Amino acid sequence: AQRVTQPEKLLSVFKGAPVELKCNYSYSGSPELFWYVQYSRQRLQLLLRHISRESIKGFTADLNKGETSFHLKKPFAQEEDSAMYYCALSEHSGYALNFGKGTSLLVTP
Amino acid sequence: ETGVTQSPTHLIKTRGQQVTLRCSSQSGHNTVSWYQQALGQGPQFIFQYYREEENGRGNFPPRFSGLQFPNYSSELNVNALELDDSALYLCASSLGGGRSKETQYFGPGTRLLVL
Known about the structure:
A: mainly beta, 3-stranded antiparallel sheet, 0% helix, 43% strand, B: mainly beta, 4-stranded antiparallel sheet, 11 strands
């Protein structure tokens, strides 16, 4: 069975501090992993996915198959990063996304 | 290019009633997926429609059904509403069906309250 675990419901950091949002998964095959973000009063949108191996808004995420993790990192948090972040897994990008419960990131000045 | 739209934005129903939610996919997209997001939870996959046919289904009972039209817009129907059906219902559109590498783009959601 597919499962995505985000252990932190809420993460609070100061502006300029490093941030890491944790995501662990269980899946028997080779999944595709994603981070989706929802800013206040906006719709859910894709932040990044592991197959792209790109950095978006300063965020990166590395797929660690040994630890079955896909943690989201940013070296210097900004106030505009405050949002709800969801880790998701899928067999294929275009198919059923299996989401974690989400982590609310609050960046304070 | 217009994004994914959903209607209505909010809806209140009573137990046992039926509800229809609507989704217009982003221009050029032929695939629509529906998700249910209960309070404090991540979205859960209900089903996907590709070229007017159901293309996969999550762990939801048969009283959750759907349609996709020739213009690729979609409906989600829920019969015999239960209190636990209260949630935000999201639709996402993409291109190329379930095996594609294309991104899913989400709509703003319909918030359903069942009393």
